[in-house]
Write a structure and sequence with these properties.
Blueprint (H helix, E strand, L loop, with lengths): L6 H4 L6 H10 L4 E6 L13 H17 L3 E3 L22 H18 L3 E6 L5 H15 L2 E6 L6 H7 L11 H10 L6 H6 L10 H24 L12
Parallel strand pairs: 1-2, 1-3, 3-4
């Protein structure tokens, strides 16, 4: 597209009911991305919003590349973070209640007319509970429903070329710090990076962060294109008799 897609075109919550209805009825919208993440401690130097803000950025920029065919639902910005609760300020949900809200969000988007839905994850603690239930979600809805963490779509060669520690995603270490430096530098407390015990964040640079973000966005868009064109179809587990 010559002109960048607007937030009103990309974000579900920016639509009126008429605008959304008319786009669905026209067949213009082909896929929906549901970002899920967390609000939790990110060492001493990163803001607690990092996970949900990063996955929302990836989702919206991928949808922008694919506009007008893809829409992004509001992010689930509280995740499963019980393992971080010793750090005050972290928010967490129990797996059962969190999965219930996620399923209801997916079900709502299916009821709206989507059969291609990507749940794009930005928090490690959400992975195991989702993988444990995903087959049942797919059996229940019988649609092209995918769950993927955005960092899994970063090609290894791009990560290795830009990370001095060669480790990703980590937790508030080089990868996430580089991401924040590039995308939302106001969330990085540089003085705290010097003082804290974990020194890996000191290896991060905004230049490396931007290169990785650009590639991740491109790969997420490619993933969704496959969902739309039928080359990336989720395999629904068979029902047992």
């Amino acid at each position: 597209m010559t002109d960048p897609a607007s937030a009103q075109e990309i974000l579900l919550h920016k639509h009126t009911r008429r605008e959304f209805r008319e786009r669905m009825q026209s067949g213009e919208l082909k896929a929906c991305i549901i970002p899920v993440a967390a609000t939790e401690q990110h060492l001493e130097h990163l803001a607690m919003e990092h996970d949900w803000r990063s996955v929302m950025l990836v989702a919206t920029e991928a949808a922008r590349l694919l506009s007008p065919e893809v829409i992004v639902a509001p992010s689930m910005n509280i995740g499963i973070s019980e393992h971080h609760m010793r750090h005050p300020g972290t928010l967490t949900a129990l797996p059962g209640s969190w999965l219930s809200v996620l399923f209801d969000t997916i079900r709502s988007m299916h009821q709206a007319g989507f059969t291609n839905i990507l749940v794009l994850n930005g928090h490690g603690g959400n992975i195991a509970p989702c993988l444990g239930m995903w087959g049942q979600f797919q059996q229940r809805l019988e649609i092209n429903l995918h769950f993927e963490s955005y960092w899994n779509l970063l090609p290894e060669e791009v990560a290795l070329a830009n990370l001095k520690t060669k480790r990703w995603p980590g937790h508030a270490q080089e990868f996430e710090t580089a991401f924040a430096m590039a995308a939302f530098p106001e969330n990085v407390r540089h003085d705290a990076m010097q003082d804290q015990e974990d020194k890996e964040p000191l290896e991060a640079t905004p230049e490396a962060g931007q290169k990785m973000i650009d590639e991740i966005v491109k790969q997420v868009a490619k993933y969704v294109v496959g969902m739309i064109d039928g080359s990336n179809i989720a395999e629904i587990p068979p029902f047992h008799t």
